Task: structure prediction
Amino acid sequence: MVTVLDTIANAPRLRHPEKAHKPDQEVLRKPDWIRVRAPVSKGYAETREIVKSHKLVTVCEEAGCPNIGECWEKKHATFMIMGEICTRACAFCNVATGIPTALDPDEPARVAHAVKQMGLSHVVITSVDRDDLADGGAQHFAEVIRAIRAATPSTTIEILTPDFLRKDGALEIVVAAKPDVFNHNLETVPSNYLTVRPGARYFHSIRLLQRVKELDPSIFTKSGIMVGLGEERNEILQLMDDLRSANVDFMTIGQYLQPSKKHHPVIRFVTPEEFKSFETIGRTKGFLLMASSPLTRSSHHAGDDFARLRAAREAQLRKTA
Result:
């Protein structure tokens, strides 16, 4: 059976040459709505100590997340497994690129112990891209999930995975470990991929998310993008439709912030009113949940969002019963 996704997956990838990164491009001044306070709280310090004592890596630090102060104060952290060196070189990302080190077989146990020590009711696990591994790190993801389940059975688990491009059977390994939420971010619209996310393929990522639902419909699926990278509004709306065609439950939209002058520039700062309109449109398109604001990030308020996701699904089931 040929689906809409099969058709669009074979379409040529688009490129807007005018969107390419220009090293001498003016750095835009951050508006007031994107500014956050520096992390100084006691809770932040305690979370930092737990992370360091377990020799763990967090995407909160590696990606320079603006919400780190708020999240760590509440003892919320997104653990980044499989090292801190990525095999990809995306133009938006602050994670180091290079040749990764070997996987640490003790890492799943250390992550699980940290989750238990922090008393997390919901945890987010992400990773660098590991194109050097035969399975892209799928088995390691599964081992981390199982270790957390054994240490704290009541903790719900959200994973934010790479795309497992050209890694046959990898997705099936991760889905079989039954995370509660499977997140894979599209990051941006397809016309930006050659300049922003050159190692990835847009429609492969869409198909990955669709395949999760085919393998296990009980798993919530989630994806997110950044705006301010030169995308057009109609491209965002089309991306929403592509995600809904893959039956994705939850979409996040946040403002792109340039980590350094070497990274892709911020083309513009999207206003809070525009973010609100995207949230409204997403709901009309059928997402169970939308999170859209300048400071929205994939794992920001993830625990609260998971509770809302479950409630939204239950309400939907009641309507169709």
Remarks:
- The longest strand covers residues 220-227.
- The CA atoms of residues 146 and 177 lie 7 Å apart.
- The two ends are 29 Å apart (CA to CA).
